[in-house]
Amino acid sequence: MKIKTNKIKGYTLIEIMLVSGILAITSIGAYSIFNQAAARSKTNDEAINIALLKKDIIEFYATNSDFNGIENSVLNTNFVTKPSMRDPDDVDVILNSFGGNITVSAKDYGTISNLGFTIQTDNVIAKSCAELSVALANEVDAMTINGTDVKAYGDAGIDIASVTAGCAESSNFSTIQFHYFPTGKIVGTTALTAPDVSVPTGNKVAVIDKTLICGYSELKSNGQPITSSEALSNTAYYTGDTAVPKTVRDTIIFEYKNAPANQGRCIDATTYGTWITQVAADKATQPSLTYDDVWRTITGLSFQSSLAALTASTQTTSFNTACSTIVTAKYNSTYTGRYIPYSGNKCAIVPT
Fold first, then answer.
1. Model pLDDT for residues 270-322, shown as the tens digit of each residue
2. Percent helix, strand, coil in the chain (nearest 5)?
3. Which residue has better confidence, 164 or 171?
4. What is the DSSP letter of 261?
5. Euclidean distance between CA atoms 30 and 46, whole angstroms
6. With bands split at pLDDT 50, 70 and 90, how would you rate the model's confidence at 335?
7. Taking the CB of residue 20, how many other CB atoms lie within 10 A of it?
8. CA distance 337 to 319
9. CA 145/CA 121 separation, integer angstroms
10. Are 310 and 270 spatial neighbours (Cβ–Cβ below 8 Å)?
11. What is the pLDDT of residue 110?
């Protein structure tokens, strides 16, 4: 009887080496694809984070005439940065998507100090350097990569050759600076000639008249609640007798701003202080009444009469004179100021 046996055929060494090689190549390809996807994800995250940070900085400084004093700690403590970008152990640190840091600082324009700001991100991986620069090209007014200028103020776009050269300066990690001169500070339609480069050519700069009182709600522009100590430290808002409540103070500010002759302008400290003093004096003569009742029945009526007597032409002249003083002091005698109607407290720079 013949016994049938099954022979188990093994793999030859060549076959094993061939399969191993294919697996190795496949693994390398998969690893490369994974790395590229990870780099692209970090690039996208960084572009989004920087664009949002720029927007939030502009909103936070909306009531300031410039970006003097801007720094990482200010942005972190006022919650301008996203939670994921903050280091819980160091208020001076803003984290980027590459495991590096972001540094925010004020940026001068010509002879004008702190007109804009710079967001510098470092430790940018080589694969993301050019992609991040291109992604944010239309978001920035100027850009520098590893010390190489790739976009100057006024350029329509970035210079690709300069981007390539700038990114090539470092084979591993790059530092990119994004410079902004926001439309909140550079606004308008009338072109200016600025041979001394004291204001950006082709734009009209708006400065904030900080002597005006625009309201309690403007103490913070980042949406964070105002503490009582912060409110009381605002000496302009609490001019005069501090017993005069917020309701009366806000009414004075609101009604002055909404008087037709005032064209939406915030109240000046002198006028504001006069009426705060008056309502306190009227309250002293009628101790049984609340401050709100005194305002409704006595002081407020006089206030309304004074507003009705104002004329737009007289007020416009007065507002423009105040703006001219501010603009001339901040820039030079080549420019004068003009109140921007219904802006609250903005002065436009115009040539003399």
1. 999 999 999 999 999 999 999 999 999 999 999 999 999 999 999 999 999 99
2. 45, 20, 35
3. 164
4. G
5. 24
6. confident
7. 10
8. 9
9. 10
10. no
11. 65
Q: What is the strand order of the sheet 186-187 is part of?
A: 186-187, 204-208, 346-351, 335-339
Model confidence at 42, in pLDDT bands (50, 70, 90)?
Answer: confident
DSSP label at residue 295: I
pLDDT exceeds cutoff 70 at 15: no
How does residue 201 score in pLDDT terms, banded at 50, 70 and 90? Answer: very low
How far apart CA 178 and CA 141 sit, in angstroms, is: 8
Six-digit token string for 305: 């009469």
| Contact of 298 with 282, CB cutoff 8 Å | yes
Q: What DSSP string runs through 158-197?
A: --HHHHHHHHHT-SSEEEEEEEE--TTTEE-S-----TT-
For residue 241, CA distances in Å to 54, 210, 230, 273, 309 come to 40, 22, 17, 9, 26
Whether 109 has a pLDDT exceeding 90, the answer reads no
* The two three-digit tokens of residue 268, written as one number: 């000046």
User: Residue for token digits 């901040």?
Assistant: 330
The residues that bridge with 116 in the sheet, in sequence order, are 107
Q: Domains along the chain?
A: 61-182 (3.30.1690.10), 187-351 (no CATH)
pLDDT at position 197 over 70: no
Q: From CA 90, how far away is CA 293, in angstroms rounded? A: 50
List phi, psi (to 5°) of 289: -90, 150
Dihedral, 65, 63, 179, 74 alpha carbons, nearest 10: 110
**Residue 73 CA to chain centroid, in angstroms?**
15
Query: How wide is the angle at C-alpha 206 spanned by C-alphas 263 and 185, nearest 5°?
Result: 130
Phi then psi for 337, rounded to 5 degrees? -115, 155
